[in-house]
Design goal:
The complex is a heterodimer of chains A (118) and B (151). Chain A is α/β, with parallel strands linked by helices and 118 residues long. Chain A is 36% helix and 32% strand. Classes of the chains: A alpha/beta (118), B alpha+beta (151). The interface between A and B is medium-sized, with 26 and 33 residues.
């Protein structure tokens, strides 16, 4: 398995730490984890991608799917990414304008999460 | 496999066949990166190629017949690395769709990608070029919905 996931709660956020490579082979594992935390009631999710070595369009699709799922429930998701290689794929797909991107987990969780909408 | 150089241009062809299974995508990415390094691509160019090869192979794996193999041909010519990937498609498979998010990523990262579908074989070809240190023009594309990949 080239993907490892860990979840922790920080200041009202559910932080999903992703390690390894996210591609067609591993994306379903990430999708299942994000669906699990969202369905368990997490409203404010932070996907920590600092230890992701590779991310392709399938992985981006999983992240966008999770964001849609959260927003339908009044929640939100931001990303932690300080890796220029990954930031480039967010830029060329214009998804850097869709996701809030932070340089650290501390920055992503610094502001108390907004109360659930609706 | 090495072919004799033509007209003074070094030209090596590398063939790699793996099961058409996502588990082998990492192997193909690593092979592509190693070959690009051999042509002295920059780290950015190598990363672009890794993603482009991954996207092309992932698209074909979705079309593959059961037990099919993914046949990758890398051609190293001077400053270019040509990549052609082919798979035997499942009977119900459609040609590789060039309207998908994956294809748009591929287009942003590789030169002149093309898709073909003939006699139940789906093929995607692309080229990566070494820039000789010159900055490549920045590309920014408004793209469709990435969840259309089934992601």
């Amino acid at each position: 398995m080239e993907l490892r996931l860990a979840t922790r709660d920080i200041a009202g956020y559910t932080v999903v730490e992703v390690r390894g490579e996210v591609d067609v082979y591993t994306a379903s594992v990430l999708r299942a984890k994000l669906v699990e935390v969202i369905d368990r009631g997490a409203g404010n999710v932070v996907a920590d991608l600092q230890r992701v070595d590779f991310l392709d369009s399938t992985g981006l699709g999983v992240l966008v799917g999770a964001l849609k799922r959260l927003r339908m429930r009044g929640g939100d998701m931001s990303l932690v990414c300080d890796n220029e290689k990954l930031l480039k794929i967010f830029r060329i797909t214009a998804l850097d304008r869709v996701f809030a991107l932070h340089g650290s987990v501390q920055a992503a969780t610094a502001t108390p999460p907004a109360p659930p909408a609706g | 496999m090495t072919q004799p150089p033509a007209a003074g241009v070094e030209r090596d062809v590398v063939l790699l066949t793996v099961p058409a299974d996502g588990a082998y995508l990492g192997v193909l990415r690593t092979a592509a990166a190693g070959l690009a390094a051999r042509l002295h691509f920059t780290l950015d160019e190598i990363e672009d190629l890794r993603i482009a090869v991954d996207e092309a192979c992932a698209m074909l794996i979705r079309l593959a017949a059961p037990m099919a193999t993914l046949r990758c041909r890398f051609e190293l010519t001077g400053e270019e690395l040509g990549v052609e990937v082919a798979v035997s498609a499942a009977p119900e498979a459609s040609p590789p769709a060039t309207s998908t998010f994956a294809w748009k990523v591929l287009t942003a990262l590789a030169t002149d990608p093309s898709a073909a579908f003939s006699e139940r074989t789906a093929t995607i070809a692309l080229t990566a070029r070494r820039s000789n240190g010159e900055p490549r023009p920045g590309a920014r594309y408004a793209m469709g919905d990435p969840t259309e990949n089934g992601g």
